[in-house]
Design goal:
about 20% helix, five-stranded mixed barrel, alpha+beta, eleven-stranded mixed sheet, 8 helices, binds adenosine-5'-triphosphate, OB fold (Dihydrolipoamide Acetyltransferase, E2P), Alpha-Beta Plaits, about 450 residues
């Protein structure tokens, strides 16, 4: 038997489709061929800060165990389904398919690590594919080959989560989703924190809003809890199929590499350690900006309006606070310098918030006011004049030395939620029965 890894990406467009749906269709067809799955299909999110993505920069990988004589049949089936289901007439859709036999070479793992937090060029992807002996198929410009190879190269050894995704029948694509909101709340109550990011206040987060075939997806720590969640969520429309994916969602996989400010380039996802070097500014639109400095320079950091209460953490920073900031580097524009769009902040050391106050009147205990330049202070109540220095007082801080992340509705797919801050999953992987339908 041989291990066949299949990577797919860039098959959908904003007007429809989803690479995970194509993968779910392949799961059905491959099951009919009695193919052995070595793992759940992998849903690998790549650098969320690249400009080419349609939505969440997701790519997929199937790891199969097959007989040598079946390899060509499977490759042909995959390529046929990509041609049939990819939105090839959309100008930005450039599918890529990669096949790799055997173990994952170190170069491919490195490509995946780079694709998670930085940009990868198409030429680099071609070069690595050739070096690793991966067979690649490009449709149109074939940019999807980057994601396809990166999905194969992600071995999820450090941490992972699962997502059960349900899909709609084609007649319903584009129509409002008929999901019973109360049942989602009940599911959340009965399964979280083993499931996460189901709702935020009263907002349901498991369902997308676009014309894609996804009805809803529940994320969690184990396939078992996702099957339980699936049974609890009530819907008023048919479910055409569902699949449990293993994923790097909720693991902060894109926020592992520390950068110096001078090396933080546009479109990277970066972690920067530094000291707050400006007072935070709240703009008219409610966005909050603050500057951070390290020994190589200074960078503007931003928390935007949708980040809700996370912005007030940023606005409570003061110069001198030592922080670790996490986020995507946005290129400079006419109105803004190069900016790190904040996805998370760790407050490492709070600076003392010192204020100078006028002294207290020794007679009546009221705070004095200035009696004029060089004239000392005067109590407004009893009129006593005193000659003393201003006193330094340390004001309490509202924020603490801890990690802050935006609310679930403003998180990236890759963001590690509060419920996972001290949690990791590790192999072995066991395929649940059932893990897909049909
Ligand atoms: P969906 O979430 O619906 O699957 P998407 O947001 O994943 O859509 P795609 O249609 O897959 O968007 O397009 C992303 C494109 O960006 C793909 O062609 C992929 O190969 C490419 N890509 C992904 N990561 C990188 C990277 N780090 N550097 C350069 N290109 C990348």
């Amino acid at each position: 038997m041989l291990t066949l890894n299949i990577g797919l990406d860039d098959t959908d467009s904003p007007r429809g489709g989803c690479t995970t749906h194509l993968c779910a269709v392949l799961v059905e067809l491959l099951s009919k061929l009695k193919v052995k799955f070595r793992d759940y299909p992998l849903l690998i999110r790549l650098n969320p800060n690249v400009p080419f993505k349609t939505r969440g920069n997701g790519a997929v990988c199937l790891r199969l165990e097959v007989e040598k004589k079946a390899v060509d049949v499977i490759k042909e089936l995959v390529l046929k389904e990509v041609s049939r289901l990819a939105d090839l007439s959309f100008s930005g859709t450039d599918p890529g398919v990669a096949f790799l036999l055997g173990d994952i070479p170190a170069e491919l793992r490195r490509l995946s690590e780079q694709a998670m937090c930085d940009m990868v060029s198409l030429n680099e992807a071609f070069r690595i594919a050739e070096k690793c002996g991966a067979e690649i198929h490009t449709f149109k410009e074939g940019r999807g080959i980057i994601g396809a190879l990166a999905a194969i190269g992600e071995t999820l050894e450090d941490d992972y989560t699962y997502e059960l995704i349900t899909y709609r029948v084609p007649e319903n694509w584009g129509k409002p989703r008929a999901i019973d909101i109360e049942s989602v709340k009940e599911m959340d109550r009965l399964t979280s924190p083993d499931t996460f990011n189901n709702i935020d206040d009263d907002r349901v987060l498991i369902a997308p809003h676009g014309p894609d075939p996804v009805l809803y997806g529940v994320r969690g720590e184990s396939p078992e809890v996702l099957l339980k969640a699936y049974k609890l969520v009530k819907v008023h429309e048919p479910i055409e199929r569902w699949v449990i994916f293993r994923s790097n969602q909720g693991t902060d996989a894109h926020l592992r590499v520390k950068r110096k400010i001078c090396n933080a380039h546009p479109y990277m996802s970066a972690v920067i350690e530094g000291v707050v070097s400006s007072k935070p500014v709240v703009s008219q639109g409610g966005h909050v900006f603050v500057k951070i400095r390290d020994d190589t320079g200074e960078i503007n950091c931003a928390a935007y309006e949708p980040a809700g209460s996370f912005r007030w953490v940023i606005s409570d920073l003061i110069p001198g606070d030592v922080v670790r900031v996490y986020g995507g580097i946005r290129p400079p524009s006419l109105s803004h310098p190069k900016t790190l769009n904040l996805e998370k902040i760790e407050i490492v050391k709070l600076a003392p918030n010192l204020k100078l106050h006028n002294p207290i009147c020794p007679n009546c205990g009221k705070r004095t006011s200035s009696a004029g330049r060089g004239q000392g202070f005067k109590c407004k109540k009893c009129g006593k004049k005193i000659f003393a220095e201003k006193v330094t007082v340390e004001l309490a801080r509202r924020i603490t030395e801890s990690i802050y992340i935006p609310p679930p509705r403003a998180q990236r797919h890759l963001t590690r939620p509060y419920s996972r801050l001290n949690r990791k999953n590790a192999p072995p992987i066991k395929l649940l029965d059932p893990w897909h339908f049909p």
